[in-house]
């Protein structure tokens, strides 16, 4: 994303917690990028740093592009440096990313009022292909995004629209968080194909081969749990089958049929081993927050619980404890009406009088915005 | 087993609940058997029937050779027909087979005092190869057996020793039930290789390929739970690693190493699909009773629970409800000392005065036993 933005003329600062990880890029000052159409370009970066204060200084938007397991760290480090109305976008938030990020900012005493938003998924299918090289396989057409509170979503979309017009508004962060398809597909397929992955180093088609009638049945059970949790929160989450039809035009009456008919899954190999973010990210930051919400609202999450337990055993890690719970998201003990008010308006109690709202800059007209594109910046973290 | 016994000169009655399943054998009156050394023989049966009264009439030993899911049915059907001191052997009992069998006999009002025993495993590795054909791949050297109560184990071994001298005494049915290795290996390997099994119709080596470092780690976790449950009951169960060393001389410091080094696992293919007894038998009649004992005695069975849940989801069946619990085994609410007294002596309360014990026939001397071998009979159920 840093290379893509820089190559397209945006001013970009690249930050990584670990200087070593961006050393080569810092030396060259640029990243080589192979685009989805096979052409190559170079993104020249304004700054490459592992100093968060330097990275955030003066930027309009901070794009956080790390596994969700890094969100807490990033939030803690950003907290002292974020200024009024500065925008932080989690790409993506998985489940409850923006909610937890805001909780941490508050706990860390961040008194300015930055805007925290989350995307439903990462806008690219892409890989780092070298120490200063990247490749974009596919650029998604539409990615849902919501700010916390939702009243600020429009402001974020406007700030991003020159760079990524693909972002479309979600009603609130509950929608982006509950329409988390990775939660359904990633851990289950990885665990129910654990032996195959480890024995062959992932040498089979992850979706086309790994999703069989029985594994698809487990996916359906988990998906039903997710949709039911969403319904308990008043959110009409999209079932995975409907999502496959929308996103890939994949037809079929069952998840199994739709996946077998999905050309978009052709050629995607399985992970090379089980130490993969499909488990260490998607279990604690997708399944655990979903199951935690299910528990709070009396929705059975039998299938999710089985996967969480199994992942804990396979990795010898207590993902339930390390994962994101209703407590981390600041939702513990809240009623549905309170949660919905919180994600919409940013406050729980309707009688609570907030400090005077910071004055928003009036939206720039479109023609001005385009001219100012070079002032936008991204903090991209791999 | 029926063919083997008959071919070796024992008088055998073959019974199956479903007449259709033994129709071909009934027509021919015999079963063709390929033995482990590659030679062929024929076992001529005295009776082939689906009438349980006829099957049990006059036989000394009833060998029950069915998946554990059939034990309840068999127990109910046998109850009215079992006579004093008639021997029923479950081949094998899985976990708690003899305990539940006896509970059902009592509930069904069986007033005679038949002897119920269970083997730790089936004495053959064998397959039915046709409607009246069978093949024995391997004959095990030593199979633990215990009667309920243990005071009668010697009597059962004596009755069986002409036919199968491989049977060796276990201290009691807790030992045969808790040394259940299938509980550890079968469901976990099937579920963690679910996609692979279903996609390739089981075309890989189940143990050699399917047991990887991660799946072996899950096996170790479940095995530790089993050994801990046994310890809570005062039973020194053998860890799977030690069992692999004893049974197969497989060396290694971890389960993974021992399995990879186990020549005995070479060539064993995975199940062809997931509708297999590795789940529908081993989950409800191995894992469920183990987890149920764990719950009663405060032993965490996190790993077993994950496997049980997953199996329930994959098969859309409530195996926990259908499975064998402490209640079914007649152990619910009993203390360890009470359970141990029960399996040893057949009664829970030391102050309880049982009805006068039926007079046991004095053991026949060995030379007589041999001559009487033809009077032994087996009810073998495939």
Structural class category of chain A:
alpha/beta
Number of distinct helices of chain A: 18
Secondary structure: number of strands of chain A: 12
Question: For the largest interface in this structure, which chains are involved and how many residues does each contribute?
Answer: A-B, 31 and 31 residues
Major beta-sheet overview of chain A: 5 strands, mixed
**What is the gyration radius of chain A calculated from CA atoms?**
20 Å
- What is the string of helix and strand elements of chain A? HEHEEEHEHEHEEEEHEHHHHHHHHHHHHE
- Helical proportion of chain A? 40-55%
Which stretches of chain A are poorly predicted, pLDDT < 50 over at least 5 residues? 363-376
Strand content of chain A: 5-15%
What is the compact description of this entry?
2 copies of one chain form a homodimer. Chain A is built from 18 helices and 12 strands.
Please explain how this structure is put together.
The structure is a homodimer of 382-residue chains. In chain A, helix 5 links the parallel strand 6 and strand 7. Chain A has 382 residues and is an alpha/beta fold. The first copy, chain A, has a five-stranded mixed sheet, sandwiched between helices. The termini of chain A are close together. Chain A has 18 helices and twelve strands. Chain A binds chain B through residues 189, 191-196, 198-199, 204, 209-215, 217-218, 221, 274, 302-303, 305-306, 309-310, 312-314, 316, and chain B through 189, 191-196, 198-199, 204, 209-215, 217-218, 221, 274, 302-303, 305-306, 309-310, 312-314, 316.
């Amino acid at each position: 994303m840093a290379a893509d933005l820089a190559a397209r003329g945006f001013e970009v600062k690249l930050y990584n917690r670990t200087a070593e990880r961006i050393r080569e890029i810092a030396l060259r000052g640029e990243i080589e990028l192979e685009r989805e159409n096979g052409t190559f370009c170079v993104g020249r970066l304004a700054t490459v740093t592992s100093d968060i204060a330097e990275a955030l200084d003066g930027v309009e938007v901070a794009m956080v592009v790390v596994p969700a397991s890094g969100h807490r760290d990033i939030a803690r480090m950003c907290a002292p440096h974020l200024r009024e109305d500065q925008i932080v976008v989690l790409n993506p938030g998985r489940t409850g990313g923006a909610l937890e990020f805001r909780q941490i900012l508050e706990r860390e005493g961040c008194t300015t009022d930055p805007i925290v938003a989350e995307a439903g998924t990462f806008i690219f299918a892409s890989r780092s292909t070298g120490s200063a090289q990247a490749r974009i396989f596919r650029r998604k057409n539409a990615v849902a995004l919501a700010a916390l509170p939702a009243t600020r979503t429009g402001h974020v979309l406007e700030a991003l629209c020159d760079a990524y017009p693909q972002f479309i508004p979600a009603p609130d962060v509950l929608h982006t968080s509950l329409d988390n398809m990775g939660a359904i597909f990633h851990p289950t397929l990885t665990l129910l194909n654990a032996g195959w992955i480890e024995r062959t180093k992932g040498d089979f088609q992850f979706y086309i081969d790994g999703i069989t009638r029985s594994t698809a049945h487990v996916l359906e059970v988990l998906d039903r749990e997710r949709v039911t949790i969403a319904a308990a929160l008043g959110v009409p989450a999209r079932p995975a089958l409907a999502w496959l039809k929308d996103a890939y035009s994949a037809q079929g009456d069952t998840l199994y049929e739709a996946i077998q008919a999905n050309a978009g899954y052709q050629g995607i190999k399985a992970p090379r081993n089980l130490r993969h973010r499909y488990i260490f990210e998607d279990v604690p930051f997708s399944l655990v927050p979903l199951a935690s919400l299910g528990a709070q609202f009396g929705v059975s999450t039998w299938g999710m619980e089985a996967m969480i337990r199994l992942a804990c055993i396979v990795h010898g890690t207590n993902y339930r404890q390390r994962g994101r719970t209703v407590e981390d998201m600041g939702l513990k003990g809240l009623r549905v009406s309170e949660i919905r008010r919180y994600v919409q308006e940013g406050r729980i109690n309707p009688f609570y009088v907030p400090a005077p709202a910071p004055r928003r800059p009036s939206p720039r007209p479109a023609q001005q915005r385009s001219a100012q594109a070079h002032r936008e910046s991204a903090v991209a973290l791999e």
